[in-house]
Specification:
By secondary structure, this protein is α+β, with helices and mostly antiparallel strands. The protein is built from five helices and five strands; from the N terminus they run H-E-E-E-E-H-E-H-H-H.
Length: 147
């Protein structure tokens, strides 16, 4: 990220959180575009594709609904552009939405199974408890490292 632009964005907001620092992430988007890691005043971090930062960074705090609209709005425009470009028939839109939803849900379910190591219906409350304990220990370790 250009050094000059980085300093212009520090002190501004993404949603209700104040930006403390920005840096390029090692990760890239699916299509290979840059991702920026944002550190907020509360030391939490979040990553966004660099291309959308200009649309979501604001001078003042905003609510999460406003932030969501700023992120999702351009995505809807891109999807509509694809539908227009491919001249999708109106009668096929419901089918397309169903196929897209099915595909997204399938990917989420597959990733979820990989993360948990077992299917949803095989998980127990003890599995959830173990995840929460592990997360709590990781958070405590991070907190001690910051101190």
């Amino acid at each position: 990220m250009e050094t000059e632009r980085k300093y212009i964005e520090i002190g501004k907001y993404i949603g209700g959180k104040k930006i403390k620092n920005l840096k390029l992430s090692e990760r890239k988007t699916y299509l290979g575009n840059e991702i920026t890691e944002i550190t907020y005043d509360d030391d939490t971090k979040e990553e966004f594709p660099k291309a959308i930062l200009k649309d979501i960074i604001t001078e003042e705090k905003s609510d999460l609904s406003t932030l969501r609209d700023k992120i999702i709005g351009p995505v809807v425009e891109k999807i509509l552009a694809i539908l227009l470009e491919d001249e999708i028939k109106i009668q096929d839109i419901e089918y397309l939405k169903a196929k897209l939803t099915l595909s997204i849900n399938s990917h989420i379910e597959n990733a979820d199974t990989i993360v948990w190591g077992k299917e949803y219906y095989d998980r127990t409350l003890a599995d959830i408890h173990q995840i929460l304990i592990k997360n709590k220990k990781n958070e405590e370790k991070k907190s001690k490292e910051r101190s």
